[in-house]
Every structure is written in C-alpha cells, then in structure tokens.
Amino acid sequence: MTDLGSSDDGQAKGAGDGAEAVASEIADAVEILTDLWSLAAQDSSLRLSLHQLRALRTLETTPELNLTALAERLDTGMPTASRLCDRLEAAGLLERGLHPHKRREVQLRLTSHGRRVLGDVAERRTRALAEALRSMDAEGRAQLRRGMKAFLAAQDGGLPRDDRTGRR
C-alpha cells in the first residue's frame, strides 16, 4: 500500500496502490484538512457553520442569485435555504433586494460585512494551511502541488466548467 507520508517516488508497488486504496488514504487526509479549515473558520469574528460559509461563498462567486438558484446550488430545499438566508441577513452578511428588471424576483447579495467575513475566513484558512505546509520539505510541497494539479485535471475530465461557479 502507498504510504502518503513516505518519501518514496510514488510509483505503484503492488495491489494496494490501486485507485481505491489511494482514495482511502486521501480521504483520511481530506478529513484532517476539513478539520483544519473548520477550526480556522471558527476562529473568525463570527462563528459560522460550514453550511453558512458555503452559502456565502456561493453568493460571492455567483452574485445576485435568487433564493431558488441558491437552493439548487446548495442542493437543499427552499425552506432550508430561506431560513439560512434569514439568519445570514440577520447577521448583516447578506441582503435581499428587488431584481432591477424582474419586479417579482428577489436577489441575494453579500453585504460589505459579508465580504469582509469571507476574506477573514479565507485568510485564516490560508495561514493554517501554510503552517502545516511549512513542516514539509520543499520537495514534498512540490510533489503535493503536482499531485493536486494532476488530480484536478483528472477530476475535470475535460468537461467545461462555468467560470463563475466552477460547476459543470
């Protein structure tokens, strides 16, 4: 089995190096990374859930969505998305406004406070990740970077991505 923590060249050595075995090891690393990101987000001025942060990030990357589009992007029901927006609006992180051309449609927009909170969370996450990466040697960081680029290229599978949302 490939040891993600070893210093070997990453070449396949046996049956334990199949996609499923490596996926299991990567899943363990992703759990640790998720914890690191979650803790960094909790240290920000507002303690937001990962679901709330995801909604804010969605509105940052795709401004002025309506509630239906946000619910679709979050893969959640309308009542859940509505309550989520109610809480974010009460915290001053998003605002609802009328669509300039469709009088019956309400758009969701990040407030300047919401953008600052997202920036703070991103900065804290970057610092936490950089701290972990500093404990790696330069070659290990370079290998990780190459591996992540290869993973993203393979994951994309040649399908075009929407430039604003990253969705296919």
Structure commentary:
The chain has 168 residues and is mainly alpha-helical. The chain has one domain: Arc Repressor Mutant, subunit A. The protein contains 6 helices and 3 strands, in the order ααβααββαα. It has helices spanning 19-42, 50-61, 67-74, 78-90, 112-134, 138-156; strands at residues 65-66, 94-98, 106-110. It has a 3-stranded antiparallel beta sheet with strand order 1-3-2. The longest helix has 24 residues, at 19-42. The radius of gyration is 20 Å and the shape is elongated. The chain starts with 18 loop residues before the first helix and ends in a 12-residue tail after the last helix.
CATH topology: Arc Repressor Mutant, subunit A
What's the name of the CATH homologous superfamily?
Winged helix-like DNA-binding domain superfamily/Winged helix DNA-binding domain
CATH A-level architecture:
Orthogonal Bundle
Tell me the count of domains.
1
Strands, count: 3
Secondary structure category: mainly alpha
The Rg value, from CA coordinates, equals: 20 Å
Order of helices and strands: HHEHHEEHH
- Calculate the terminal CA-CA distance, rounded to whole Å: 33 Å
Describe the global form.
Answer: elongated
Helix content: 55-70%
Determine the strand fraction and express it as a percent band: 5-15%
Poorly predicted runs: 5-14, 163-168
Largest pleated sheet: 3 strands, antiparallel
Order of the strands making up the biggest sheet: 1-3-2
CATH class: Mainly Alpha
Number of helices: 6
Mean pLDDT: 82
